[in-house]
Amino acid sequence: MSVVDVFKSYRDTHGQPTPVLHDIDLDIRRGEFFSLLGPSGCGKTTLLRILAGFEQPDSGAVVIGGRDMTGVPAHQRPVNTVFQSYALFPHLSVADNVAFGLKQKGVRGQELKTRTERVMETVQIGDLGNRKPDQLSGGQRQRVALARAIVNQPEVLLLDEPLSALDLKLRKQLQVELSNLQEQLGMTFVFVTHDQEEALVMSDRIAVMNRGRIEQLGRAEELYERPRSAFVANFLGSSNLISGTVTDIQAGGATIQTGFGPLRTTQTQGMTTGQPVTLSIRPEKLRMERDMETEGNEIRARVDDIVYTGAENQYLLEANGQRLIAFQLNTDIGADEDFGYDEEVALYLPPASLVVLEEG
Ligand SMILES: Nc1ncnc2c1ncn2[C@@H]1O[C@H](COP(=O)(O)OP(=O)(O)OP(=O)(O)O)[C@@H](O)[C@H]1O
User: Fold this and answer.
1) 259-297: b (≥16 Cβ within 10 Å) or e
2) Fold of 238-356
3) Is the pTM higher than 0.95?
């Protein structure tokens, strides 16, 4: 499925057109779990609705299975949508809800029964067929909504924050189940979420959106390890940003002069001497030590605050007037690796973990 140069604007309260999607270009591969990730209002639902055919772009096109969908109404597209709000028929039983789409298509008798039952088994609601939606938990309702959407075997399944109404534990369980289901069905899933962890866990590839544009597109690991902008670095997890100027470029890396002194990075791509740059380093890549070593890339910091989160300690640090954050795995209570309030520490910034952002 492709999105070609899609532009969309809405009229604001004064009737002025306000762009919400700017020239979106995307190629979503067949059988891929693809996520649209971004903060509230960035345009991800609008893009999904354009794929579904519920909205028309001002310009540009959606192509599914090689066919231009311009002018093709929603119900004739080879897609189905699962919404956050389930949207089940309250007066129909679970089995009739699931069978609905097949009946519309004229499937009857044994085939209807077999296909409905098979899909219900797949999403583990095989024993709930006679219940009504109001007799189900939120997780069960979402399974019915899923069954109803996949029973028609669409080429593409569109999912608009389908797990966001569920509690954390159930959400985590369904994340795993959904990605297993996608693999088993081999169907293309396009999944909208504002939850970065959800996108990282489930997706083959993720498009990070910001203000109607795609900021970066790639595999989870690429986006996390090599963010291109401060927005991506901070939207996917958290990050320490350090500004500086390139002073030296060698074969295996570059030196950046910063407020903390010179820092080495193993990156060199696209850099020129004298260029101002922003470095990004993930909090878990900072190594906290009691004493300075001599290998460089170390800065002195003071522990300002400590947040205990169970698996790790999050240290808020002050270094040369800047706030930094470091995560350290929680070892045994009282172990040598624990640091106290106001303690002076040395922070080692591994050169391979210092990422040069393309845009500050
Ligand atoms: N029908 C509409 N008329 C006018 N403006 C709209 C309409 N639908 C959406 N918008 C605006 O378009 C922008 C993008 O909205 P959209 O729902 O696509 O964002 P989103 O990323 O899905 O956000 P959320 O996670 O909050 O659902 C927002 O500024 C929103 O206010």
Assistant:
1) ebeebbbebeeeeeeeeebbbbbbbbbbbbeeeeeeeeb
2) OB fold (Dihydrolipoamide Acetyltransferase, E2P) (2.40.50)
3) no
